[in-house]
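Tokens help. One example:
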Amino acid sequence: MHPGDLETLSAQRICSDCVAETFLSALIKKEGSPEHCAYCGEEAARTLGIGDMADMVETAFNDHMIRTGTEPPESERALYADRELNLSWYREGQETVEAIEDTASIPSAAARDIQAILEDRHDDIEMARMGAETEFAADACYEEKKTDAREWHWAWSSFEHALQTEARFFNREGSALLARVFGAIDQLRTKPRHPVIVFSGPQHRINHLFRARVFQSDAKLEEALCRPDLHIGAPPARLSNAGRMNAKGISVFYGATNSASALAEVRPPVGSKVAVAKFEIIRQLRLLDLTALDHTRDSGSIFDPTLKDRLERVAFLQTLSERLTRPVMPDDEAFDYLITQAIADFLATQNEPRLDGIIFASAQSRKGRNVVLFHSAALVAPMELPHGTKISSRSVEYDDDRSSPDYRVWEETPPAPELQESDANDPFAFVPWTLYSSTEAGREPTLQIDLSSVEVHHIESVQVRSTAFSVRRVRHPQFVQPHQTAPVSTSDLTKLQDPL
């Protein structure tokens, strides 16, 4: 196309009424100028230069569309070459003008003008000499491109590597990546009744959690049965070991939505005893449901410059749940838990919206779901006991069949004190005694133990699910080079076969 003709064509204007695509039409109304529209003749409508429109079409096609092949794929060429089959091959996608017209919802004349501008822009003499097709050629075809989240995966792998080998605590790049991944995550859409952000607590579907603890000593078990709020609830900081979602010394509450999952998660050895209790959630919490990330989706106009990044983010999030909850071998926990620990810290302290915990699939129970409540939401309300109460626990004698131990807890309360004259007007004189540690200042109780739910499980056997794979064994003579008496090792053979 002659430069003068191209300049004249690019200067033509198109009005918002001629553009039915919502995003583009709104953009023209907001940023366009009132000039003559070359496609409908309107004199005072808001318009945009067709050259500017071509720029946006080019960007949108680069981000969201792909030019299809001019020949059948290599794997199918033999089929179409077979004369007996007599198959006809048709190129996939829409021709350039049609694709522009449909995506931008503009008149055919405007689509042809944009195609002409872009074809001229991508014209290549060398490609033309070889008879090769160029971008936006009139007979080229385009179809929607699949979302590619490779950049997100590369960034995430780099973050994992940096946590393990470089900067563990003050990682600005890591914080920026987590903000991109989890920021405004409550606005993502998922399938109905499976939101990414779940509210739990009174009047909500998740209003209680189960927690289990393994005991290999009857004395420690009896101590825990006396005060299950202290011994089955989240441990104090000094006793908190590192876990999937917490570093050592940070007390969090690991629970499950059912008793069986809680029992499976602690992986008790045969012969041990496990105390399991239900904890009521007594205030509203906001939890991130990792199991819902598989169903996240986003949409919008391909002319919106933010859509590409949003779609890639969603594609990455759809794989993140499996990545964060895959089983970790005990020897690898110190390294492999670093990333999930960093995520939990970020979500609890820096993310917007601020979260109280995470729901994730159980690695030990196929049907169960686990919930970790961050430190700020992990405090169990102490049992209400009169001051001076003595508590004891023991297992009562077995029945005759020696199969049913009877665990009992005794609470010995002191006699009620006489009301002193100085206490007559004190409304708190006989408030039941509770035990709050000074380290809990600033934290509001979130959980309350259901004392009637406490059970002791005797672990008699453990069921293992596995998939067996056979091992093949092959025997062959060793390779010996000519003029060499000693046999050549397998590694030497490999070097001979592959000098690189």
